[in-house]
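Hi there. Long-time user, first ticket. I'm pasting a complex I've been working with (about 954 residues overall). I'd like to know whether the download I got is complete or cut off, because the file seemed smaller than I expected. Thanks.
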Amino acid sequence: MARARGRGVAAVNYPTGMNLGGDPSQALVHATTTGNFVVTLSSVDLGQGLKTVMQQIAAEALGVPVDTVIIDTADTDTGPHDMGTFASRSTHRTGNAIVMAAKEAREVLLQVAAEELEVGAADLVTDGKGNIHVVGVEGKSISVIETALAAHFKHGRTVSGRGMYLPTRSYPDPTTGKMTPANTYAHACTIAEVEVDTETGDVAVLSLKSAYEIGRAINPRMVEQQIVGGAWMGMSHALYETTEPYYPDRSHGPVDFNEYVMPGPGDLPEFAGVILERPSHDGPFGAKGVGEMTANAPIPAIANAIFDAVGVRVDSLPITPEKVLRGILAKEGEAGAS
Amino acid sequence: MPRVPVTFTVNGAEQAEFVEPGTVLIDILRDKLGLTGAKLGCAQGTCGACSVMVDGRLKLACLIPAERLSGAAVETIEGVDLGGRLHPIQRAFADGFAAQCGFCTSGMILAAKALLDRNPDPDRRAVIEAISGNICRCTGYEPIIAAVLVAAAEMRLARSA
Amino acid sequence: MEHVRGFFAAERTDDLKAVGSSRLRSDIAGHVTGKTQFYADRNPRGMLYLKMVRSPHHHARIKRVDASAALSSLGVVRILGHSDVPANIYTILRLIQVEPNDEPVLAVDKVRFQGEPVLAVIAESEAGARAAVAKVKVDYEELPAVFDVEEALKPGAPLVNEYHGHNYFTYESYPFRRVRHGDVEKGFAAADHVIEERYQSSPIEHAPLETTGCIVVPEANGRLTCYSDTQALFFTLDNAALILNVPFQKLRMIGGTVGGGFGGKVDVIVEPIAMLAAMLTNRPVKYAYTREEEMQVSSPRAAERIYIKDGVMKDGRIVARQIRLYADAGAYSRHSPYGTTKAAAHMPGPYTIPNVHVDCHCVYTNRTPSSAMRGFGVTIADFALEVQMDRLARLVGRDPIEFRMINAYRDGDMKAHGKVTDGAALVETMQAAAELAGWRLSDWAKRQSSLKREG
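Hi, the file is complete. Here it is re-exported in full:
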């Protein structure tokens, strides 16, 4: 039994959003009488955790504690329009809409606080902990809760805002292909190490080590969730998955998880990653989308690592043990023949 | 077809239902008892999302017909927490970011509990085997394995204190 | 994971309070206690179950449909065929002005993929609906089928979709999406090496743990509330209203958490027919894919075939890249015309190549209609591009990372689709990955920057 190790690399970028289709998102923000901020959306959470990310973006833009932000989403009767959760667009598009809505709400908040404190609104800062302070004047401050109460019951102001983000739709020139597919791209580089069993063609992925450049990590542990989950999906895509195992014969397509094979917890490589940030010009706090791209670099990195290990180039997915073994045997045949 | 009676306990509470013959436990839990924490992912016994404990052992609720339940003690995710406080396994999953969409999480936690109930000091290999009947499409499993090991350590510490 | 803050530090202020904090997810308590709401975590009284009669053939004419035995089957309330659907055409792309609308909600005279829905059976129980589905008799006349993207484009290939009249999507009078930049033939002529390789992929399933589904509840005021795991609420609402031919205000979409989407729950495939069933029976209706349906009927990621021809210099510069890509849309368009455009836009990868020629074909075959999946239009392209880069690196005798650095795009570089590069970071990302993985780089490679190109 012989095992051969190899390593491979892949480097990719990925566009945020879908300039080439319709890509609008809206957000509404309003304060309750007691200084909580309801952010109303129609974004659907798929498990990537956008409710948390939006909460953090809203809190930062408003200048209030994250715990005072309430995300209300996924009801078309109450939420303003959102195109949908796909194309790695939500953090960027919906996040931008929230920033815009928060800006409007924050202006009202500071105007009311300014009147209460008898200063100009430009002299005020929020501390992110629930208070609004007069710059340079120790002890002169008002809580967000008091400000909200004053706005509602004394000043008759709505502490609310509307946000809309619509990137200009791009129509590709049919002849030249000139187009603007995106304004913002994230980046990734994965280095894979594999060990190939030269008698069976079986490939074990030993490690997937990646660097991701994503503009701004709104919640770093959640970015990590995408990187690790995506690396696993990439490994699965590269080595295991197909709905047509006997293509071009389309019979015996898998109909359950016994037949649709994916790597289990016993097949895991070592996952490692680092995060870089080159803020985008047009993302909320510079954020770019990361959700989709995380399987993309691992797949060719693994394919290249297999070549490095056994000199077999499999250029069709999935790279099954059978394909690897056929390649190994073909090489041995060539070697034998020469 | 005449319905059949079935009596069993769920999370310590007695239940008595009349069901169509062959109704499986997952449908009784979700549709009759409103216990929707266990999920239906495949109805084929291959994904683990419906995992519950029956008489102390981890079982797939989509494969257990009502006729097999009489007198059984069923434990679901709704019974895992400690009187409103999170169980250490739940705490470890939360702190460890071990869930994304959450659909596999109930089953994973039951699988972890089944392991730690009988083996309080599992190594990584034992954790992997314990959750090998539960599919996750989102997390890549690594944070789940880590969470179970963290929970095990915390539970051992609490017991020795 | 570590933040490598040294890169691009001048472009950033790291003084944010709420952003950048790894606070616990707001939904995690619900997840670990089983309380997070998914669409199916409800059981309205009187709910009916919808199951589909599906084509067993890849390509066939429907000669006769006999639902009489099914209609009298135990618990069956209603059976719907194409004539019950007010506007029997999926409209996914109409709302973003990408015609045509080539897919029926329920098959009319022909089926074009194995699993295509023909009749919707609505019954009091899931078992009753399944039993009734088995009793529906459909007489088919099988037709020759095509499963290969290049075979489908040959003259004489079986015509998959009469709506188009040919087995490809037309991009404003062109049979493929085109990108033209520079002159590849001149580039190949000047190159030291020219290679052409072919890459292929198989369709893959999203395989979310929660299958596609919805529950539609008629309200007292005549509206319909649809609890769905769609990834796009308004997209679904608007398309459903067009199919049902009802005013948009009649419909309300409510989403919970989706148990895994990955792009597979944007096809608006279950809601319209379930809404129709709820309207016609005035009872709640549940239509949920079984795992078998999720695996073999729901849209997969498109299979692709990609030819890449490259001209490369001895010093490592790629001077010409010609790409011919075939995306297998399967029997119907869905989002594939958009995804194929996205693939064209992605070429030639994050590299500055002076001569680029791209033809991306959206091809119809009798395979399962494909649609969006995580990395739509890009994932398979990246597989092809990055394996090709590995081949080229070895051809010119360069370290694979350094070869990529030679060609990596920098700020200010012109892209093949006519935009100027801005915000590039490929170089630094490779440097950081190399550091993490212990991949030794030369001093030259360590000096490279996305901000400017060094000789």
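A couple of notes from our side: Chain C has two domains: 48-142+207-296, 177-204+300-421. The radius of gyration of chain C is 26 Å.
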